[in-house]
Fold this sequence. Notes:
The chain is an alpha/beta fold. The chain is built from 17 helices and 9 strands. The chain has a domain at 45-86. The protein has a 9-stranded parallel sheet. Helix 9 links the parallel strand 1 (150-153) and strand 2. Mean pLDDT is 89; it is low at 169-183.
Amino acid sequence: MAKSPYPPGPNQKAPKECRKARRIIAEDPDWSLATVPYLSNLCLQSIVKNFKEKPIFKELTAIQRDFIQERLSPSLPLHVTANFISDGVYWKRCCEQRWDLCDVSHYGHSWKRMFFERHVESIIELFIPYVTEPKTVLRMVPLCKDYVKRLDISQLLPPIKEPEEEGEEYGSELASDNEYDGPSMDHFDFGILLDKLTSLEELHLVYRVKQCGMNFEWKMFEMTDQDCESLSKALKSCKTLKLLRLHESHIDDKKCRLLVKYLLDHPSLRELDFSHNLIGDRGARAIGKLLTRSKLEILNMCDNDIRDPGAKAIAHALSKNSTLLSLNLRLNRLRDEGGQAIGKALLNNTTLRHLHLGANEVTGPTAVALSKVLAQNNTLKSINLSCNKLGEDGGKALEEAMSHNTSITECDIRLTEVDEHIVSFINQVVWTNQSLEQKKQAKEKKTK
Length: 448
């Protein structure tokens, strides 16, 4: 019987020799069963592709979430990703794409916190009054309020100054600052933001303009009265704030008093830094009042214009204070009346651990007053009297006091005109105290 030239029908079997010869030839020569993706991966890739229209994340497993985070575009709108994508690889990719330096250890090892803090900082630093819409900032609040714990604002832009007419150019050179008719040199209004950041704990502000070039004006480097008033009210409304650093902003007595007025009885403020400003005695009196009506632990008034009346006000509050741990009055002008007042206050204070009176024009009498403190106060751990003219009598008083002291682990008396042998003796006592402190801490760790 002759073989049919046609292939067998559906109910017929191919001859044995034909079945052996059949093979599949793929169009792709590299194709194999091993390269076929899992259906689950195809679904995840679809989620990535359509995330903007239909975000799916929380319903996935941990491994699936990692898959999504590694592939999502960092350019997706924040209103899509902020409340859906948890902290992890995605936010790390967003940070590294935007900034060259990304030290996550400064942000509690949270990439998401780093992104939103730096993003909000950038918006505020580039905010131009009367030009930028406030809603630019406000629409970020629902997205970032749970992640922003610290804001470090390194510049605040003033309004754009209108160009002068040619005929007014000469006359403007003779005009005083008070005759300027344009918008006041106000900056970003923190009153619209701070009360809404419910996790904010630290605020660092500098009223200045970076890289102002030939447009330099002194007004670019200070806060106005309106700035001060709006900021003061905003600080009062921010109940979670623990640290306020407002420095290099030409804060004078008037502004200091207004700020303190709204900081009195603040429920959470623990650290205040008004360093490198223009605060004098009236502002220092307000600070003294703040010490009696707050729970401050760290106060930095370095490089201001506080003299003996202001120092006496701070000393009076210090004698009654039971929370302050660190006081920095470096680079003021306390002189001996102020220095002796601080020393007398510390005889009644059992809380302060760190005192800095460097470069305050104090001399021997202040050293004598503080030596009495060193002889009987076991709470104070460090004292800095550098760059003062303590002289021979002051050095001897400190030497005698330190011979009986077992608590001071840092005593800086460089550039004080104290005899080198006395300096060497005091340093030896400090090293001995440091060794005792280390042994004490090691013992406490073992008992725990």
